[in-house]
Structure formats: C-alpha cells, structure tokens
Design a protein that fits this description.
Layout (H helix, E strand, L loop, with lengths): L9 E5 L4 E8 L2 E7 L4 H14 L8 E5 L4 E5 L6 E3 L3
Antiparallel strand pairs: 1-2, 2-3, 4-5, 5-6
C-alpha cells in the first residue's frame, strides 16, 4: 500500500494485540517501524533465523499442535523448535 504518494509499503497487523509493523523501501534496503505489545518484525526475524539454522526446510517439515489451552507451530517434531500461536 502506498501512503501519500510515497513508495509502496508492506503492513503487518495483529488485530488481537493491536500490534503492527510497517516495512518501507529505502535507497539502502528497508526501514521497519513497529509498535504494540508484540514486536511482529522481531518475531519474523527470529523465526527466519531458526528456519535458516535448520537448513531452510520445506513446509512438509512443519506441523501444528492444537490443544484447548495452546496452539503452536513446530519444526521437525512437536518437541523441536516451536512458535506459540497467540489467541
């Protein structure tokens, strides 16, 4: 989405926590602005770093566990690296 005739920016929104991140292109790369209780871009960077650390596996290597009190995405097996999904 472009704002005020500027460059096209990418918006990440978490409506549950009212958190957001905005990625805008610059001459040297990207500028990221984030706010709210969840640091969305920080979480994405952490997940990508873990994915790369484990050899950049394809989507078949991931699974999801859903229980009454929690939900999580995991890599390899339910006891491997995991990311909680927030309600």
């Amino acid at each position: 989405m472009a704002l005020d005739g500027g460059p096209v920016s990418t918006f990440l929104l978490d409506s549950v926590t009212d958190s957001f991140a905005v990625l805008a292109p610059t001459e040297n790369g990207w500028q990221v602005r984030q706010a709210g209780p969840r640091r969305l871009w920080d979480a994405i960077e952490s997940a990508v770093a873990t994915w790369e650390e484990y050899g950049s596996p394809n989507t078949a290597a991931f699974g999801v566990t859903v229980a009454r009190d929690q939900q999580a995405v995991w890599l390899g097996n339910p006891n491997g690296p995991r990311w909680p999904l927030h309600p």
